[in-house]
Each structure stands twice: as C-alpha cells, then as structure tokens.
Amino acid sequence: MVLAQGVLAGLLARLRGGALRGVAVSMAATALLSVSQYLAAGTADEPERPARVDPGQPPPFRSADGVIFELETLDPEPWRALWTSLGVPETVADQAWRPFVLRYATAVAPLPALLHAATQARSFAELAGAAATAGVAVQRLRSQHEGNGGICRCTPFAAPWTVEPIAPAVVPGCPARGSGGSPLTGGGGRGQAASPGTAGRSPAGDARS
C-alpha cells in the first residue's frame, strides 16, 4: 500500500512537471509505520481506559449553509486553537481531542455537542478560514455524483483506465520466456529459485518500483 501511494505520488509529480524517475520504499520503515500507533499506546504511561462509548456525536460536521465536512490534524494544539476560536471552551476542546485522534483505532468518536453546535452556527467559508488559521485541514464531503463528475472533468487519463496487451519485456542477460523454464523451476541459467527471505528484495533490503 505504501509503495502504491509512492507510485501515485510520483505520477502526480510528473503531471506537475517533475522529473521523478523512481520510487523507493523501506520495508523496515513501512513496518514501523504500520505498528507505530500500537507501540505508542502499548508503552504509554497513561493506563488504558476501559472500553466504553461516551455520549456524543461523531464526525462529520455540518456548517450553517449545509456543507458536510471532515477535519484532520494529528496535533492537539491546532485542534484546540480552532475550537477556541469558534467559542468552544478549552476544556471541552481538550476533552474531545482523545476520541477524535483515536477514531481510526477505536472506530468510535463521540464528540461533545458543543463542537457540532459551533460549526452549525457558521458558514463553511468562515469555518474553512478559521481552520486554515489554526492549521487544521478541512475536507468537504461530496456526493458520489459530485465526486465522479469532478474526476471525469479533471483526469488526463482514460475514463477511468484501459488495459492493452503488450509484448513480453526483453531484459538483457535474462533468458527469453520459454527458453529454459520459469525462474522457480531451476532452469534457464540465471533463472534459479530464490533463497527464502530474499525474493522481491533489492540488495539494500528495500522494495523498489
């Protein structure tokens, strides 16, 4: 998944005029990324709270003009700054931080009603401006119809993609397909079976595309 994200980022960079020619992903760093939040929770000094669902309403939020949106930040300071600028008491914003930041790990996010009341009292433009000032990302949620329309108008690729047969790749120094068996059958000169634990790895131990 991380490598796929890197490839997509590289394609986007090319579309914007960049000269990116490759993407490298560290297996060790990817593994650490996938378990980092669990390591942090498992080694925290704060004792784990009993599993329960507090009263409250989860995201998304709604503005006074009917726009439904999500917020995103991994830092409690911008979170606190946003809500206090909207008139929410600091203690309430702090109370809401933990369920908000853990919503992906716990699958619940009971937020105090004051947060939703604050967004419903202001226009989306006003809320987006306050979030930008505080350093919190805002993402408007669009319907499936709106989302598909935007993609079809903006994409430089086919809609959404096409698959075409191509000739087998010819790699210098490697036997052609069918000339000496597949790589894992033991035939074909250099096409020997890979040692356990080495398949799909570069000499540096990183996956590359």
Description:
With 209 residues, this protein is mainly alpha-helical. It contains eight helices and five strands. The chain has helices spanning 2-15, 27-43, 76-85, 90-101, 103-106, 113-120, 124-134, 144-154, and strands at 24-26, 61-62, 68-72, 137-140, 206-208. The protein has a three-stranded antiparallel beta sheet with strand order 2-3-4. It has a two-stranded antiparallel sheet with strand order 1-5. Strand 2 (61-62) and strand 3 form a beta hairpin. The radius of gyration is 25 Å and the shape is extended. The two termini are 13 Å apart. The model is unreliable at 181-209 (pLDDT under 50).
Please tag this protein with its features:
mainly alpha; disordered C terminus; single chain; 8 helices; two-stranded antiparallel ribbon; extended; 209 residues
Write the layout of secondary structure elements.
Layout: H1 2-15, E1 24-26, H2 27-43, E2 61-62, E3 68-72, H3 76-85, H4 90-101, H5 103-106, H6 113-120, H7 124-134, E4 137-140, H8 144-154, E5 206-208
Antiparallel strand pairs: 1-5, 2-3, 3-4
Helix pairs in contact: 3-4, 3-7
End-to-end gap: 13 Å
- Main structural class: mainly alpha
Low-confidence stretches: 181-209
* Count of DSSP H/I helices: 8
Mean pLDDT score, rounded? 76
Biggest beta sheet attributes: 3 strands, antiparallel
Largest sheet, spatial ordering of strands = 2-3-4
Q: Into which percentage range does the β-strand content fall?
A: 5-15%
Fraction of residues in helix: 40-55%
Quick overview of this protein structure:
The chain has eight helices and five strands, in the order H-E-H-E-E-H-H-H-H-H-E-H-E.
